[in-house]
Amino acid sequence: MSNPSLLILPGDGIGPEVMAEVRKIIGWFGDKRGLNFDVSEDLVGGAAYDVHGVPLADETMAKAQEVDAVLLGAVGGPKYDDLDFSVKPERGLLRLRKEMDLFSNLRPAQCFDALADFSSLKKDIVAGLDIMIVRELTSGVYFGEPRGIFEEGNERVGINTQRYTESEIERVARSAFELAMRRSKKLCSMEKANVMESGILWREVVTRVAKDYPEVELSHMYADNGAMQLVRAPKQFDVILTDNLFGDILSDCAAMLTGSLGMLPSASLGAPMANGRPKALYEPVHGSAPDIAGQGKANPIACILSFAMALRYSFDQGAEADRLEAAVEQVLADGVRTADLLGEEGVTPVSTTEMGAAILAKLD
Ligand code: NAI
Ligand code: MG
To answer: Binding of Mg(2+): at which residues (predicted)?
Structure first.
């Protein structure tokens, strides 16, 4: 059987810097664990614009559709700020998400003990936190029609439409239940069924899908209460399922419970391909960080943990993902810190490559 395939798109700014560390980790899994990937690399964002005049070439898009998983660094930067909207670096990423139809966005919020002091919440409220937000990514109010700014009488009206079909709700719900089955079998669905019809339908469909997963304990919560509960007692949750708009806000909120942007991975999954694996794009939550790009200061952990998610969700290598996450946890427990993680007195920050090397050393 051929090796699973991985397309690496480092992108712009710190993207290539953090991806260089991930490549070493991928190499380690090949050398030491016999887990070999067919890795190809291509351009996205400003890097693609510089060469092709577009932020994602058609050939790259075609390659992304064929591989088992795409791993992306980050796109964007001040150099491209004045470009026309249609060729901005971010459009490259949007095209990938749209054409791969990545409807299920997984955003973990996990608190590493060594970093619990970084949270804006009290240490005992976040220590040990490990939750996963599943956000619907391709529909809802960001895409619904009608939309626009229209003349109405003697003033203008701005309109967006929250629109969900049953099948759109069902497919993301299934992906959340599947995830819950791999975790602690607890799922909380959040909408506002009290004031929105789309929320009523959401609740109905999720309740129906739940019948196929009798082992999963399902609860429903209005999203505003969910926001309160997330900052009051986040450990009550395991998997949270929600729509595009609420998920945008709730996942950013949950992320900050656990500290630095340099730590946060994500996965965006679509429908299963012929080989049973879902279409998949893994990327850190952070952007290209132009303020620190080229200085060797970037924290590679978000991108490394994104690869751990790929191991788990695309390649069924949960034990290897655990191994990689444990190495990250141990390095942090040893007090190794990139500049974004400085808080304690008297700690000298390590560089991007030193952090990568420390994680590799722990893996050994
Ligand atoms: P950003 O995430 O790039 O940076 C925000 C702050 O966090 C900066 O101070 C940065 O130095 C710091 N930071 C981010 N990642 C870090 C890491 N791994 N290690 C250490 N520090 C880190 O967001 P910003 O500044 O709003 O956007 C910069 C560019 O990135 C823009 O062009 C934006 O459009 C783009 N962007 C791209 C995203 C993507 O590719 N998915 C997501 C967000 C922004
Ligand atoms: Mg957001």
So the answer is: 224, 248, 252
For the stretch 1-58, pLDDT in tens is: 689 999 999 999 999 999 999 999 999 999 999 999 999 999 999 999 999 999 999 9
Going by CA atoms, what residue is nearest to atom 17 of ligand 1? 262
pLDDT band at 215 (very low <50, low <70, confident <90, very high): very high
What residues are designated binding site? Answer: 77-90, 97, 107, 135, 224, 248, 252, 287-299
Work out which ligand 1 atom sits closest to the CA atom of 303. 18
DSSP states of 62-113: HHHHHSSEEEEEE---GGGTTS-GGG-HHHHHHHHHHHTT--EEEEEEE--G
Integer angstrom CA distances of residue 21 from 27, 33, 148, 159, 258? 10, 18, 43, 44, 23
Side-chain-side CA neighbours of 121 within 13 Å: the count stands at 21
Fold agreement (1-103+263-364, 130-256):
yes
If one residue of 261, 266, 292, 301 were mutated to test the ligand 1 pocket, choosing by the most ligand atoms within 8 A of its CB, it would be 261
Q: Which CATH class is domain 130-256?
A: alpha beta
CB neighbours of residue 283 within 10 Å: 25
- pLDDT, tens digit (0-9, with 9 covering 90-100), for 169-203: 999 999 999 999 999 999 999 999 999 999 999 99
* Residue 24, CA distances (Å) to 70, 220, 224 in order: 17, 42, 42
Q: Whose CA is nearest to atom 18 of ligand 1?
A: 262
Q: Residues marked as binding for Mg(2+)?
A: 224, 248, 252
pLDDT > 80? residue 213: yes
- The residues whose Cβ lies within 5 A of ligand 2, an ion, are 248, 252
Q: What is the pTM of this model?
A: 0.94
- Ligand 1-lining residues (CB < 6 angstroms): 14, 18, 74-77, 90, 93, 261-262, 283, 286-292, 298-299, 302, 340
Tokens standing for 208? 């129906």
Domain locations in the chain? 1-103+263-364, 130-256
CATH of 1-103+263-364, one of 3.20.20.70, 3.40.50.880, 3.30.420.40, 3.40.718.10: 3.40.718.10
Protein residue with least CA distance to atom 30, ligand 1? 287
